[in-house]
Amino acid sequence: MANQAAAQAKQKPQATHETPTDLSREGVAEITAALRQLLADTFALYLKTENFHWHMTGPHFRDYHLLLDEQGEQIFDMTDDIAERARKIGGTTLRSVSDISRHQRLKDNNEESVAPKEMLAELSADNQALTRYFRAAHETCDKYNDVATASEIEVWIDQTERRTWFLSEIVQGL
């Protein structure tokens, strides 16, 4: 009996609060899973953008450094919106760096030295991939008639396409 009481005391309390939503439980689960992956990818892209911002070199250093600073800020601003959207519909979101690592699809770049052109080309490709991921998540939202999340995703797609455009124009000119 004492062991059972001790075991119960060690158990963490379960959250019983549910966020009111008219979305089905299945819809919340699928949309939240998509948002969790998007958030992990967005954090991964943010860190890569900042990594390249910090390690930029070359004759166009100032221009590229400032561009990546601006893009990094925009990407970081998306993270809170993505996480809060999952919470608004009753889901959960990422909890740690290891959680990000488990859910991200974009690859990290841990190279000691990367040439500016390769940095910009890689960021362009990653932004293109993120756009595809956003579109797939939008389809999930459409499936469950979650117009609010779909609407936010449309804004994120537009921002991501703009970053891709700027980066690809620079890379083509190098």
Give a structural overview.
By secondary structure, the protein is mainly α. The chain has a single domain (about 25-174), classed as Ferritin (Up-down Bundle), CATH 1.20.1260. Helices cover about 75% and strands about 0% of the residues. The longest helix has about 30 residues, at about 25-55. It is elongated and about 55 Å long.
Note the topology.
Layout: H1 2-10, H2 25-55, H3 61-88, H4 97-103, H5 116-143, H6 147-173
Helix pairs in contact: 2-3, 2-4, 2-5, 3-6, 5-6
Contiguous helical run count: 6
For the residues shown, what is the average pLDDT? 91
Q: H/E series, N to C?
A: HHHHHH
CATH architectural designation: Up-down Bundle
What's the number of extended β-strand segments? Answer: 0
Q: How would you characterize the largest beta sheet?
A: none
CATH homologous superfamily heading? Ferritin, core subunit, four-helix bundle
- Gyration radius, rounded: 20 Å
Low-confidence stretches: none
Overall 3D form: elongated
Tell me the name of the CATH class. Answer: Mainly Alpha
Kindly identify the CATH topology: Ferritin
How many structural domains can be distinguished in the coordinates? 1
Structural class: mainly alpha
Report the span from N to C terminus.
Answer: 74 Å
Helicity range: over 70%
Q: What fraction of residues sit in β-strands? A: under 5%
